Backbone:
């Protein structure tokens, strides 16, 4: 069964007069827009009387219902435009991992608590597990796969390698994306700023000290070596 | 030890082989494997903590949209013993389709009374978890020397109670498998610490010849002792794939991780310790019980059926009396977790030792050095004390001025490490490149890099020439990655393979020494068929018995109860260091997991509903970036001892050292882990709730210990240290 293609919101009818972003693909629906429309409609329909309320709401929202079947969703991922056929309930993470073939972002909690799924949406780190793919239309989505150019790692990625900013590596894509966003905004962060940036990323292996070191090294800052070898042959 | 002393790679800092793939999203973890036509599996779990299941109806599930297979976990009737127990599994074309079908499962169940709290479960009137046996299993006892006389003659005797929580593994990659059948042959991509154990369990459970099962684990996201066998979820995944005739991926959710895939058992410990005026330990008595989950064995193997632990841990008081037991509750079963038993043992023993030192007016560090039988640890204490500034920092308990009090503590650890049994295949090609294949796996410990480092070192070639393949049962056998045994098991096998390869290449090429600068010219004479030999683990290259000590410095806000960990200093014995970089990372990781055990982590059960109350990462608190102290590591390098694993010893003493530091800051012991602000305030008497007899907040442990003391006791089985983690 084919679903009808989604009807874009009529932006002119928005109560705050906001306009669609120039150049960006038209956002099909966002939670905020949906709530705004609902609010306007509710006020408008209240005047019609309670008996007409349900009908009025249904009419006002009818054109904006998507799914439950698959609908085309246009995403810009790592600079490349792709149109996927997705149920509207599909998260950005599922869209990336299962439909776009990009398994770099990881699912570890599926409820915005661990950061393993972190990607950048218009340069802001977001938990891809907790954003619907349909909400990400029109935005620039960057994933871990998009960082290295022609196979050459970024300075941050290379610092993770050289400084061992990982153990099992399952949290690494999220850590690297979060810190990439930090370094773009703040090229020379302090360790405190680095800690704050990755406060939403969990590493169970306990690689934090080395992640701090990697981020400091990637921003050209000196790092202290906390490891010492004491040769003590007398005991052997 | 025959390991070279002048090295290019061995003991130096070598970045992980797979790190570039892991930081660029190219590395395929088990959860990333997506064969064509893949279906998605989910598990139907019990929503009651105790019940009799009389019927399970999957007919509506099977006809739901997108559903391709549905299987029962077992044939009804059967008993559910904990919330979350597996009932059935469903595979669909999308994960959502399978989740949607969950509501179509028909289950007939007779709910039963349940008990999820150890202190309730020991009561005679408590509901029985297993109908045929009491919840409180038979205890195990041992007694050496005349304990009562030793206590009577002691200069000082101290008593205290301790509680350690059920700790969850929570690896970042959840437990999961992707299984594909080809006729009667099975290929499983498993997130596992043991590809060969998985192969054997798939084979026996599904009645397949072992040579028809292949298990692959290229990259996996952590296990910490919980991922040796495929588990119920792995077998359900395989059965779904067989029924559907298509590959199935079944990865657990974070919620399920908290219910059903293992944990570290809890403990309640009542300890009495006596010493003479010089601080020699003369008498020791311990009563302890804890819960390993729904099944409580009588064994004391800590983490593999029982809730026991080695006692009196690393010390040897003259007279010892120990009684340990396990209590069944309606909750998920424990399994091995990083250094099973040891952190539990360390918290109680190191805590009571501090109490004795304080009562005798001695420095707890001096008491340790006096009583620790390990020469290595005594040396480590001395070395660590200098680095840490112990003599300057240690003060009488509770004597630091002001509302924010500082304190210091230390503790020691033993771990058997060791490792054997690995084989390795090495191949030299005519262009001078090298391939090494080992059926081990990398949990994040850097096993792949260990193989590369040893091969490159022993052949005298650039490490870039050495390609390493691991994580496949088609490769030469290697044991499970547990017990801190991987590096010590794998390195000698690769060493042996290199030695044999060099001997053959010498004959084939005519070079007296084909290594190093002669390597390319020697390999050029190999001819068309690559030169391939197999090495085996042999004694003399690796060993066990890793000792380590840790020092902690904390500040405790007596108005808020908040504990801030300022610094951890680790002095760890690790023999021949193979890779300094990954060695340090593992030690950081062990310390950080110990910080969680000390201050944050606890699985909380709800008495009234029987569910895990914190089955997610926002309420089960893991240490985060903001919690990190300054961690300083000193490796006691003793190459003569050979390779020793460090993954577990480094997590053992952390919590004990922190708990001791908190007690030193406050002047009163918080014996109840994790040390959360509320417990600090209760211990300080600032809020009510302290059980005066026990030192454990808000619980009636006295009655429980009395019941435990009266329980029957069997023979003591000395702690079996070979359990894995």
Residues:
């Amino acid at each position: 069964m084919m679903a009808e293609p989604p009807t874009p919101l009529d932006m002119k009818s928005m109560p705050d007069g906001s306009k669609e972003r120039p150049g960006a693909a038209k956002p099909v629906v966002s939670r905020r827009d949906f709530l705004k429309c609902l609010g306007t409609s509710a006020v408008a329909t209240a005047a019609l009387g309670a008996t007409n309320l349900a009908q009025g709401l249904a009419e006002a929202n009818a054109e904006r219902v998507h799914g439950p079947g698959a609908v085309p969703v246009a995403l810009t991922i790592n600079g490349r435009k792709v149109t996927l056929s997705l149920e509207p309930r599909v998260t950005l993470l599922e869209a990336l991992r299962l439909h776009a073939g990009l398994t770099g972002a990881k699912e570890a909690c599926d409820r915005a608590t661990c950061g393993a799924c972190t990607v950048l949406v218009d340069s802001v780190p977001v938990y891809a597990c907790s954003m619907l793919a349909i909400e990400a239309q029109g935005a620039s989505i960057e994933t871990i796969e998009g960082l290295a150019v022609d196979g050459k790692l970024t300075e941050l990625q290379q610092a993770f390698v050289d400084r061992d900013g990982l153990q099992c590596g399952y949290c690494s894509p999220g850590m690297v994306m979060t810190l990439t966003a930090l370094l773009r905004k703040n090229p020379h962060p302090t360790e405190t700023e680095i800690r704050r940036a990755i406060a939403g990323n969990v590493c169970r292996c306990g690689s934090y000290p080395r992640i701090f070191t990697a981020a400091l090294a990637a921003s050209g800052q000196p790092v202290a070596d906390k490891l010492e070898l004491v040769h003590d042959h007398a005991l052997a | 030890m025959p390991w070279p002393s002048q090295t290019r790679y061995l003991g130096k800092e070598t970045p992980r082989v797979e790190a570039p793939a892991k930081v660029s999203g190219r590395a395929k973890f088990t959860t990333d494997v997506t064969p064509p036509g893949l279906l998605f599996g989910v598990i139907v779990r019990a929503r009651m903590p105790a019940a009799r299941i009389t019927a399970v109806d999957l007919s509506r599930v099977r006809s739901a949209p997108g559903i391709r297979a549905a299987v029962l976990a077992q044939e009804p009737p059967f008993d559910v013993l904990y919330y979350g127990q597996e009932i059935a599994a469903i595979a669909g074309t999308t994960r959502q389709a399978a989740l949607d079908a969950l509501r179509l499962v028909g289950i007939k169940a007779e709910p039963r009374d349940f008990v999820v709290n150890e202190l309730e479960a020991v009561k005679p009137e408590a509901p029985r978890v297993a109908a045929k046996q009491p919840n409180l299993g038979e205890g195990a006892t041992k007694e050496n020397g005349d304990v009562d006389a030793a206590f009577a003659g002691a200069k000082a005797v101290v008593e205290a109670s301790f509680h350690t929580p059920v700790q969850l593994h929570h690896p970042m990659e959840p437990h999961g498998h992707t299984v594909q059948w080809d006729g009667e042959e099975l290929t499983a991509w498993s997130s596992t610490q043991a590809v060969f154990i998985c192969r054997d369990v798939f084979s026996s459970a599904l009645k397949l010849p072992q040579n028809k099962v292949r298990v692959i684990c290229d990259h996996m996201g952590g296990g910490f002792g919980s991922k040796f066998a495929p588990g119920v979820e792995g077998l359900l995944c395989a059965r779904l794939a067989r029924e559907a005739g298509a590959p199935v991926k079944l990865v657990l959710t974070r919620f399920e991780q908290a219910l059903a895939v293992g944990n570290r058992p809890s403990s309640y410990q009542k300890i009495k310790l006596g010493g003479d005026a010089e601080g020699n330990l003369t008498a020791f008595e311990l009563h302890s019980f804890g819960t390993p989950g729904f099944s409580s064995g009588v064994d004391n193997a800590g983490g593999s059926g029982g809730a026991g632990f080695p006692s009196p841990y690393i010390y040897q008081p003259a007279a010892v009396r120990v009684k340990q037991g396990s209590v069944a509750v309606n909750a998920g079963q424990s399994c091995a977790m990083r250094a099973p038993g040891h952190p539990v043992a360390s918290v109680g023993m190191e805590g009571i030792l501090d109490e004795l030192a304080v009562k005798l007016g001695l420095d707890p560090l001096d008491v340790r050095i006096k009583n620790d039988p390990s020469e290595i640890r005594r040396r480590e204490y001395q070395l660590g004390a200098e680095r840490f500034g112990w003599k300057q920092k240690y003060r009488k308990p509770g004597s630091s001025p002001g509302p924010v009090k500082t304190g210091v503590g230390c503790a020691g650890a033993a771990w058997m490490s060791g490792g054997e049994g690995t084989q390795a295949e090495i191949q030299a090609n005519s262009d001078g490149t090298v391939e090494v294949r080992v059926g081990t796996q990398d949990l994040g410990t850097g096993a792949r890099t260990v193989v590369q480092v040893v091969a490159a070192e022993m052949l005298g070639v650039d490490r870039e020439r050495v390609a390493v393949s691991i994580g496949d049962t088609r490769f030469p056998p290697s044991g499970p990655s547990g017990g801190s045994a991987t590096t010590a098991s794998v390195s000698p096998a690769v060493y042996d393979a290199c030695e044999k390869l060099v001997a053959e290449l010498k004959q084939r090429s005519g070079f007296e020494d084909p290594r190093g600068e002669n390597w390319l010219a020697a390999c050029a004479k190999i001819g068309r068929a690559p030169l391939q030999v197999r090495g085996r683990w042999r004694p003399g290259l690796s060993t066990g018995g890793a000792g380590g000590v840790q020092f902690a410095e904390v500040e405790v806000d007596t108005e808020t109860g908040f504990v801030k960990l300022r610094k951890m200093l680790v002095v760890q014995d690790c023999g021949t260091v193979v890779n300094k970089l990954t060695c340090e990372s593992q030690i950081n990781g062990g310390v950080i997991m110990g910080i969680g055990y000390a201050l944050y982590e606890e699985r909380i059960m709800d008495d009234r509903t029987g569910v895990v109350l914190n089955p997610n990462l926002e309420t089960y608190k893991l240490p985060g970036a903001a919690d990190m102290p300054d961690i300083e590591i000193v490796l006691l390098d003793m190459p003569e001892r050979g390779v020793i694993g460090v993954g577990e010893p480094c997590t053992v003493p952390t919590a004990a050292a922190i708990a001791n530091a908190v007690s030193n800051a406050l002047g009163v012991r918080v014996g109840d882990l994790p040390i959360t602000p509320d417990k600090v305030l209760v211990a300080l008497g600032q809020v009510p709730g302290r059980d005066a007899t026990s030192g454990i907040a808000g619980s009636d442990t006295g009655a429980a210990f009395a019941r435990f003391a009266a329980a029957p006791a069997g023979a003591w089985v000395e702690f079996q240290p070979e359990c894995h983690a």
